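#random but structural
TW: two for the price of one
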Amino acid sequence: MELFGGAGHSKEIAKKLSKEGKLIGIDRDKEALAAAKKNLSEFQNVIYIQDNHDNIKKILNDLNIENVDGILLDLGVSSYQLDEKERGFSYLGENELDMRMDKTQSVTAKDIVNKYDEEKLANIIYQYGEEKFSRKIAKNICIARKEKEISTTKQLVEIIEKSIPKSKQKDGHPAKRTFQAIRIEVNNEIEPLYQTVKDSIECLKSGGRLCIITFHSIEDRIVKNAYTDEAGKCTCPKDLPYCVCGNKSWGYIINKKPITAKEDEKIENSRSKSAKLRIFERK
């Protein structure tokens, strides 16, 4: 039995697989992999891979594994990365604008904030952050960077706070949506996601399940649409007596509505409030 999943998640999974299978832990972040190795040091059935889950087919091919029993994708930034303030993911404190999940890549949040033109910045903040004040934020970023490079999280937060009316700063931290948008752009989290879901399903054994945890509506919408398409959504006109579109069904959607955290978990772990779990089973 093989299970493919994020490297930061997996102590209980490793225990269950310790006698008869292996766990393949994938993470872009070298430091997150090191933390996972320490956390799972008692287990000998874990393979650690520094890579992107978007490359699942190549990863398994390199390991000479045709398919796996299950896949868990925990999308977005991890608690480990958020807690490491110097990584620049958090809008709390004053740290270098970085936000790279993989530190070997060249483009950072500072590059995007200081080099993208105003229109492109506004579009990213609106599309990936669903921020209503994206135009104002982008405009003020461009004004500020003419005087001085924006190099810290604190500088960016101050610009965002000035761009959003106080009366509208009630739904969480005012910088939350913009930081999310810039992080997504830095790490190219959205563009490959639909194909990654399809590739993951194709890498499952019959009866294997793909479990995906999302943390914002953009991810969740893409996962939901990919699941629907992989379940074999017919696109033929309703008046045709039989299907001619040829859409193949790869399996079944286990839960039509996403599974969310219970109230006690939300109290214990506030970051679970936005988490949604969707499950797909391959035929």
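TW: number two ↓
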Amino acid sequence: MSVPLSTPGSEEIAEILARAVEEPLSRDDGYRLMRGSEADVSALMGAAAAVRDRGTGRTVTYSRKVFIPLTNLCRDRCGYCTFAKPPSHAAARTMPPEEVLAVAHAGREQGCKEALFSLGEKPEERWAAARDQLRDLGYPSTIAYLAAMGERVHRETGLIPHANCGVLTRDELLALRDVNGSMGLMLESASERLLERGQAHFGCVGKAPETRLQTMATGGALGIAFTTGILVGIGETPEERVDALIAIRELHERSGNIQEVIVQNFRAKPDTRMRGWPEPSVLEMVRTIAVARLILGAEMNLQAPPNLAGGTDETQDVLSLYLAAGINDWGGISPVTKDHINPERAWPEIDALRQVTEGAGFVLRERLCLSPAYVRRPAFVRPRLAARIRAWTDATGLVKGEETRW
């Protein structure tokens, strides 16, 4: 791991950063920063941290969640994914209601407040087995089943659902809206090139960038807060990373509903097309995080997943660099369930994460799946979830105390 933290950068970079501290970064300036030298990284991180501090201060947040992988059947076939399974695979499954509720109750007992539903995208459009499973469960679609399970989880445990389920129509968004505190849809990349043969998103109808952006825009019109983000290292160029971040910024300027942006690093996994693909370096991640902060501005919540950071011996150092580069959120952390998307990467202990965060001069606070700014905006708080949200949060929109339970 080599990230220079004291070497002065170039005069051109200094001029760009001086502008970026005052106003959101332009596309061309973002390109220059993404292609800058290692000597520029320290100044870039400093500018990004200054912008972050102006917007969110020295508070860093996380959500205590339980992870519910409702189904790992999926119509897409991303080159890096081990979560999605074909029906013929021994591990392919759709969770029955009793198992969903058992996991949710276990989360409640451990103080979780978020029920993160992650699932393959519309598997019934590709697999007869998925259609058969849904018929046996008594639902016409995966989205209908997801909506029903979200409602039951909240009613029976108090947990607030947050669904990550791929692209959605307006009617599907309406079906999910009232039982989700917020929703998630990673843009991943704005590059159509990654849909071509041999690229990460070949064969993935749900990964068309415009379709994903449109889903989130429609969500904004319906009062649904979305978490989105980019996936770093899946074959995109540095300029395409900037393009994706600009697309997210422009979406938020129009729709006003992007509550958080994740800068997530690709991790190579066995049994995938991209198993031999090079992973992004710490330097690439730190640079991308800092550029993301300067593009997205002071108020946006910016996350980098802590369980994907570095190797075992260097994780704490990498997390400190992420903080120095401008993040203000660690995302969902589960004391109950593994990260089913990246099962080989364990969640950090919350106490260990607190130690890293406070060691860097920040205060770690718990939030709900709906970020504090949107907790304070009635149009984004669903009526059936409002009582639980009010009971758990203070005037800032953050969780009242770490000891809070159901």
